[in-house]
Design brief:
binds copper (II) ion, Immunoglobulin-like, 3 domains, binds CU-O-CU linkage, 39% strand, six-stranded mixed sheet, 7% helix, 31 strands
């Protein structure tokens, strides 16, 4: 574990501004002075911690600090002084113990996004509140057959989730596969966005930002703006990509080189799928094999239209109005040198579970709602089945060890990425058509005026947990419900 001294030394000076941003309300950004990032640094990765003998113990301190982002010192929030926090490498059957230390000025807590672990007690329990100055010991026991994949951790205290993640609190969890493909190198790519003012402090969100979901003006890979990567022709790399952005959809391309998808969110496909473009909604992850061909390629995210509030708020389209106007280069890959030998074939994986023929114990509908302007408040309401989140109310009761089919309806004019904790979802129908492959996700995009059907096997764990929109501004405003499995 990293000694605390470095972080403490960096803390001086950054505390006030970051603490204000973390508090959230009130402050918002005016375009008076712009923070311009320094692009082109060498690619680096967060610190890596590996489990040994079936366990990993980590102390994670959430604290404000002055941390290097986009080539400048910025007053942000970090875990153990880093943005992203350390990467935790686990295996199926491991026990992960995290002591979360809250050195923020406001409450926080921790969620392990995508892990199939118990939501009870000191497990993946989002109802836990860790007050400023306090700590809490989480313990997560992974089943021996836990799917390999890319997961991540982030705060989940209702009302401040978007503020805390936007300000820098996130990190990656890898569950290693038993049969990894041979690669020249593996990289973790945590993609985040943030808006900093001229003095390097985190910008607050305006009411409009909160309504459409804030998109930061800086889009970073492991805290860098357009870092440089290099490889030799023929080399194969594994890129594990995480979208930690509060609201930004990533439409990823790497023209000129070859991408093959090994898996999405959790698990691996039986064989890799060649792809030109990859859509990651907030919260999604992609496990990608990149084969270097030649020349210099921009790893880019393209503009994605996630709807508009036309007819509700005027014609402003989402996305560019609060972020960049078009494509953004995330990183630059230069391929040169002597050609490397052809990589070994990727070992085939067993077919994933398929619930399409399962016995369905219950069918439910969940409607993601964006309400009209409340008279006198000037704010929209964000609901599921007409209700805003209430932690003490249980919205959905599920019988343990059964399969359910949920129809996710979105009558609103903007997309909502729907996320369920603990139990992954198999997409069985998207806007009227069945996918041609077995598609497991823990965040599923429900397009504007569209619907998606998913099936869920509520196996292994019981207890209360949540589902919500992963545009975290929407979640904070109430687009979340409680599910109890018993
Ligand atoms: Cu990534 Cu409930 O969250
Ligand atoms: Cu989650
Ligand atoms: Cu939403």
């Amino acid at each position: 574990m990293r000694p605390i001294s470095r972080r403490s030394a960096l803390l001086v000076g950054g505390l006030g501004a970051a603490a204000t941003a973390a508090g959230g309300a009130g402050l918002w950004w005016t375009a008076s002075s712009r923070f311009s990032p320094i692009a082109g640094a060498d690619f680096t990765e967060p610190d890596a911690l590996h489990s040994t003998n079936g366990g990993l113990q980590v102390r994670l301190e959430a604290a404000p600090g002055s941390i290097r982002l986009g080539g400048h010192q910025a007053s942000v929030l970090g875990y153990n002084g880093g943005v992203p926090g350390p990467t935790l490498h686990l295996r199926g059957g491991d026990v992960l113990q995290i002591e979360l230390v809250n050195s923020l000025a406001v409450p926080t807590n921790l969620h392990v996004h995508g892990l199939h672990v118990s939501p009870q007690g000191n497990g993946d329990n989002v109802f836990v509140v860790v007050q400023p100055g306090r700590s809490f010991s989480y313990e997560y026991s992974l089943p021996a057959d836990h799917p390999p994949g890319i997961y991540w951790y982030h705060p989940h205290h209702h009302g401040v989730v978007a503020d805390q993640i936007f300000a820098g609190l996130f990190g990656t969890i890898i569950v290693e596969d038993t049969d990894p493909p041979a690669t020249s190198r593996d990289r973790i790519m945590v993609i985040s966005d943030i808006t900093l003012d001229g003095s390097g402090s985190v910008a607050g969100a305006s009411p409009m930002d909160r309504m459409i979901g804030r998109e930061g003006r800086l889009v970073l890979v492991n805290g860098h703006s357009n870092p440089k990567l290099s490889a030799r022709p023929g080399e194969r790399e594994r890129w594990r990509i995480v979208n930690t952005c509060v609201a930004r959809y990533l439409r990823l391309r790497l023209d000129g080189q070859q991408m093959q998808l090994l898996g999405m969110d959790s698990g691996r496909f039986p064989t890799p799928k060649p792809v030109d473009e990859l859509l990651l909604t907030p919260g999604n992850r992609a496990d990608v094999l990149v084969t270097a061909i030649e020349g210099e390629s921009a790893f880019r995210t393209m503009y994605y239209n996630r709807g508009s509030m036309a007819g509700m708020m005027g014609p402003a389209p989402l996305g560019p109005s609060s972020g960049d106007a078009g494509d953004t280069v995330l990183a630059t890959l230069s391929v040169s040198g002597t050609t490397s030998g052809a990589p070994l074939p990727v070992p085939a994986q067993p077919a994933p579970a398929d619930l399409r023929t399962a016995v369905v114990a219950a069918h439910r509908q969940l409607t993601l709602g964006v309400g009209g302007l409340g008279v006198g408040t000037g704010m929209m309401s964000f609901t599921i089945n007409g209700r805003v989140f209430n932690a003490s109310r249980t919205d959905t009761v599920v019988a343990a060890q059964t399969v359910e089919e949920w129809t996710l309806l979105n009558p609103s004019p903007m997309d909502h990425p729907f996320h369920l904790h603990v139990w992954p979802m198999q997409v069985v129908e998207e806007s009227g058509t069945a996918p041609d492959t077995i598609a497991w996700r823990d965040v599923v995009n429900v397009p504007a005026n569209g619907q998606v059907k998913v099936r869920i096997n509520f196996e292994e764990f019981t207890g209360r947990s949540v589902y919500h929109c992963h545009i975290l501004d929407h979640e904070d405003q109430g687009m979340m419900g409680v599910v109890e499995v018993r």
